[in-house]
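Aim 2 progress update. The chain analyzed this quarter is reproduced below.
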Amino acid sequence: MRAICFYFQVHQPFRLRRYRFFDIGNNHYYFDDFANSNIMRKVAEKCYLPTNQLMYELIQEYGTRFKIAYSISGIALDQFEMYAPDVLESFQRLVKTGCVEILGETYSHSLCALREKEEFFNQVRLHSEKVEQLFGKKPTIFRNTELIYSDNIGEMVDELGFKGMLTEGAKHILGWKSPNFIYCSATQPKLKLLLKNFRLSDDIAFRFSNRGWSEWPLTTEKYVAWLNAIVQDQEIVNLFMDYETFGEHQWADTGIFEFMRYLPKTVFANSNYQFVTPSEATELLTPVAQYIYLTQFLGPMKKEILLLGLVMICKTMLLTIYTNYIIKLNNVITNKFRKTGYTCKQATIFITCVLNGLAMAMYISILIIMIHLTKLILII
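Predicted C-alpha cells:
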C-alpha cells in the first residue's frame, strides 16, 4: 500500500491587552477580547470556513477514499465557542463524515513536555476531554507542539495511552533513512511514529506562491509526479502543515484552494496512492525501524554526561593546541633573547608571564564554551 496522510494544525492564541502601570492591583483581566474576536472572525472568513467547506465537498465527492486529520488546540476550541460557533459546527460536520480524525495535543499548544511531566499530563488529558465532549471521539494519536519529540516525550505519550505520534522527519536523526515509512519509539516500541516529509509539505505550505521558486507555479500534475518519483517500496508520505496555509498564509488569489480541490482527483487518476488517517496508518503499516533519539543511550544522567563529554573534548582540543604553540613559542623567544644578550633568568621570567597569560585565555575560552553548551544541553 502507498498512502498519503494529510494532517492540519489549527491554533489561535489568546491575545493579551496592553497592561498599564496603573492597572497593577486594580485590574486582573489580561486578555484583549476585541483583538481575539476580530482576528478569529478574520481567519474564519479567509481560512476556516471556506477550507472546511472545500474539505466537506471533497469528502462528499470521493467518500471514504479521501481522508484527513486535524489537531485543534484547546484554546482554539475555546475561541470557536466564544467567537466563531459556525467554525466549530463546520468541524463537527466534517468529523461526522467518518473521514476526519481529531488528534490529541497539549491544551494550550505549550512546550510543557520539555519541562514538567505533571503539567503535560494535565494539559493532554484536559484536551482529550474537550475533544471527546465536542466531537464524540477520544484521540488515539498524539501530536506534540511543533512536532517536538524525544525518547522521554515518547515514554510519556505511551503512558497516556496513545498508540501513535506525529513528529518531524529530522535529517540529523534519520541520517540516510527516509521519512516515508512508519517508525517506532526506541524506548517504547509499541508507540508508532509518523514522520513529516518536510520537503513536500513545505512545497505547499511555504513555497506555493513564491514566484522566485524554480518550480513555480505548482500544479497538481507536477506534485503528483513528485509523489510518483518516490521509491516504490516507501509506504507513506506524511504531509503536515498549518491549516492557515489555505487562505491566510497563501491567499485565495494564489490558487491554493483550486490546487487542493483538484489534488485528490489527480492522485486517484495518476498514481497508486490512497489517503489514510494517522490511526489507519498505524494499523495498516508495520514499523521498519526505531526512531532513535541519541541521548537515550546516556541513561538518567544524560544531560550531565553529555555536557561533561563535550566539555572534555573541547578542553582536550584546546590543551593540544596550547601545548604545541607553547613549545614553538618557547623556542622562538629563547633564541631571540640569546641574540639580544638578555640573561637566561630574564628570558625565563618573560616566558613564564606569556605562558600564564595564554593559560588564562585558554581557561576563559573553556568557561565561555561551557556556558553555551549548558544552555544547549538544558533544552534537549
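The chain is about 50% helix and 10% strand. Residues 302-340 form the longest helix (39 residues). These observations will guide the mutagenesis experiments scheduled for the next reporting period.
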